[in-house]
Design goal:
The structure holds 2 protein chains of 2 kinds. By secondary structure, chain A is α+β, with helices and mostly antiparallel strands. Chain A is built from 9 helices and 9 strands. A 4-stranded mixed β-sheet of chain A has the order 1-3-4-7, covered by helices on one side. In chain A, strands 2-6-5 form a 3-stranded antiparallel β-sheet, with no helix packed on it. In chain A, strand 3 (about 115-120) and strand 4 (about 120-125) form a beta hairpin. The model of chain B has no long low-confidence stretch (mean pLDDT about 95). Classes of the chains: A alpha+beta, B alpha+beta.
Chain lengths: ~300, ~375
């Protein structure tokens, strides 16, 4: 048992950290969630996208990077490319959108060059053609997109049942890692804010009413990260479903408290909190939300049938 | 980063389970465990049980060799705690003595204290309680009022202690008393013989276990200088170390996880596990226990690497409390009949243990204060 990154893993994290510092640029005004192409280019150039397929490395190493990247101010697609595709041994052009319902908007679909789409028959992986997707404006702090026409069952490569089960497991893993990163980002930002914001001649972070809630959310964020990393290490679908259940269950309170403690600033687009909270809000309902993950976990842990 | 157990660790856990299977009576859960580790029946049982643990070298394997242990790594200590606490702690209070009282004596004791006490603790035939809380000093432990004043080559101790588990049968008490002033700098630790003249123990009826709570009255209790642990005024540092050990010393996460799994088995047997909401709540409760487990492992990871304890101990403790409550709430919601006295002793034990989870070893709110101060570095209100 060892809950900390190995020196080699820490070296990988240390190599990514400067790329994230560049990403922490002043936010744009307005409801536009750009894809951070600069960070994406850096990750591609450094070979991180292929980490899980590199000899001597695996999904657990890639998971550490996905979690770290997910805490940054701006967003890149990392989970599907660094975890799902290598986990399924699929070669798909990056960025990859994971689409639970082809009729509804999905994260990254506006910028994706390929997609894995769930349907009644399981799932298909397909390369996207120009014009096949469009931007879907909304509050979620991802480049959201939708299909411009229905995805037909003959498109792409249909995944086998075992591959679909693996897809669901790694998707849940990625969801939990991305949530852990975004929780960390939102909390770090909020903790710094309450140290400087003063009311009644005191930093508001000195009030126990705020301290206890931030401490409780910290417990949840740290636990989310560890549960997700354990799932990455073990490859156990039950671990992934438990991690996703815990993550999605913890999200609402993190969003609420961070929003609350940033006051009215937290309800503006000038104040960058929304980069994390609106990512968390999108993750909260991913794959059917907490009840769906819990149902899947229950089947994996205590059920008779194999769960997707 | 590795979230699995090594072969020696798996073998050690298997060895412990085999030992428990061999040495616990068939009616362990219904007649012993459900009463709590402080119950006279369990404490009486533990004397023989601990002797067998000593015989097989299991009681203090995690201690250094020079004190009768085997230098077993902290992870084995954690495994021991998981296997013992989750089955109702058949060692009774010996877990406290081996977890943190013995190690405190190793760290701060004189050669004579080590020679006298450590061998007895390692032999499993001496019972200890801890005298920290007082009627007016619970969360604000540093405000304790029990005094120890120099007298006749030793100290005269006056005051009272409260919420003391195991006091009715304890041979010694790791006692905090004030040797000077009113601050934490004036607190001193004593290794008090509970048979000393002037010590009176009064049981307080409690919910968390049979005869679990006591009040200890100390009226002109004379203790020799040799009973003082460390220097005068060093008590706060000693107790802080001890509390880091105590806060994650009882593996509540494992007990709560097993209780959830047992509740699922119980509900399946009753034909009441098919509803989606039951499954959802079961997994949410289990997720809370697994969250606590990994945060506790994070604390032991530092210990295994010889790093000093941090506020991570408080983070783990809060998570353990939440896991205890999550398991208990799942049972209350979906298997309430199981917590009646003639119900299921495993589920009954979990809900009763969870009652005290938020106040034992320092209230959860104190843990939250420590996380805010030492982990988040939030400013003080002053």
């Amino acid at each position: 048992m060892d809950t900390q990154p190995t020196p080699e893993q820490q070296a990988l994290l240390d190599a990514v950290a400067p790329m994230l510092a560049k990403a922490a640029a002043p936010p744009k005004e307005g409801l536009v969630y750009d894809y951070d192409q600069d960070l994406d280019d850096d990750l591609v150039a450094s070979g991180f996208h292929d980490l899980a397929r590199t000899e001597g490395y695996g999904l657990a190493d890639a998971a550490l990077i996905v979690e770290l990247v997910s805490g940054a101010l701006k967003v890149v697609e990392a989970g599907a490319t660094m975890l799902v595709a290598p986990g399924l041994d699929l070669d798909l052009p990056h960025p990859i959108a994971l689409v639970a319902d082809a009729r509804r908007p999905a994260r990254f679909l506006s910028v994706a060059r390929s997609a894995i789409v769930l349907d009644d028959g399981g799932a298909v992986a397909l390369e996207l053609q120009p014009g096949q997707t469009e931007t879907a404006d909304g509050i979620f702090a991802y480049p959201m997109g939708r299909f411009t026409s229905p995805v037909t069952p003959t498109e792409g490569v249909r995944l086998s049942r075992p591959m679909v089960r693996k897809l669901m497991s790694i998707w849940r893993l990625s969801l939990a890692l991305e949530a852990a990163g975004a929780m960390r980002g939102a909390l770090d930002f909020t903790v710094e804010y309450v140290k400087t914001r003063r009311q009644f001649n005191r930093a508001i972070g000195s009030y126990q009413a705020l301290q206890h809630r931030l401490a409780e959310r910290t417990v949840a964020a740290k636990a989310t990260r560890l549960l997700a990393l354990q799932a990455a290490w073990s490859g156990d679908p039950a671990h992934a479903a438990l991690a996703a259940t815990y993550a999605q269950g913890a999200i609402p309170a993190v969003i609420h408290d961070c929003q609350q403690f940033n006051g009215a600033n937290g309800v503006t687009y000038e104040h960058p909190l929304h980069y994390w909270t609106f990512r968390l809000a999108a993750l909260q309902g991913e794959l059917g939300g907490v009840s769906a993950q819990a149902q899947a976990a229950a089947e994996l842990l205590w059920g008779q049938d194999e769960s997707p | 980063m590795e979230f699995g157990w090594s072969e020696p660790e798996r073998n050690y856990r298997a060895r412990l389970r085999a030992f428990l299977a061999e040495n616990l009576p068939e009616d362990w859960w219904s007649e012993y465990a459900r009463r709590g580790p402080s119950a006279p029946k369990v404490m009486a049982f533990a004397r023989g049980f601990n002797a067998k643990m000593v015989e097989t070298g299991l009681l203090t394997r995690h201690w250094p060799r020079q004190y009768g242990g085997e230098d077993a790594p902290p992870w084995e200590h954690l495994i021991l705690s998981e296997e013992m606490w989750s089955i109702g702690e058949p060692r009774s209070c010996a877990y406290m003595a081996t977890n943190f009282i013995g190690p405190a004596i190793m760290a701060y004791g004189t050669p004579e204290q080590k020679a006298y006490h450590l061998g007895r603790i390692a032999a499993g035939d001496v019972y200890w309680c801890q005298g920290f809380s007082e009627p007016s000093a619970g969360s604000d432990l540093a405000s304790l009022r029990t005094t120890a004043t120099a007298a006749d080559g030793g100290y005269l101790i006056n005051g009272s202690k409260i919420w003391t588990s195991y006091a009715h049968s304890a041979d010694y008490c790791m006692l905090l008393a004030r040797t000077e002033g009113a601050t934490r700098d004036g607190i001193t630790v004593f290794l008090l013989d509970m048979r000393s003249k002037g010590v009176t123990v009064r049981p307080i009826p409690g919910m968390a276990g049979e005869q679990d709570f006591h009040e200890i009255f100390l009226d002109d209790v004379w203790a020799p200088s040799e009973a003082r642990l460390g220097e005068e005024g060093s008590g706060w540092a000693i107790v802080r170390t001890a509390l880091h050990g105590e806060r994650v010393g009882a593996a509540r996460h494992e007990a709560a996880a097993r209780a959830v799994a047992h509740a699922v088995t119980y509900l399946k047997a009753c034909g009441r596990f098919d509803e989606p909401v039951v499954k959802t709540r079961a997994v949410e409760a289990l997720a809370a226990t697994e969250a606590a487990r990994l945060l506790v492992y994070d604390v032991f990871d530092r210990r295994a690497k010889n790093l000093p304890p941090t506020a991570d101990t408080s983070i783990a403790r809060v998570a353990m409390m939440l896991s205890d409550k999550a398991a208990a709430n799942f049972i209350f919601e979906f298997a309430p009949e199981a917590v009646c006295l003639d119900g299921d002793p495993k589920l009954f034990t979990q809900v009763m243990k969870a009652l005290a989870s938020g106040v034992a070893a320092g209230a959860s709110e104190i843990q939250l204060n420590l996380i805010a101060r030492d982990h988040l570095h939030l400013p003080s209100g002053a």
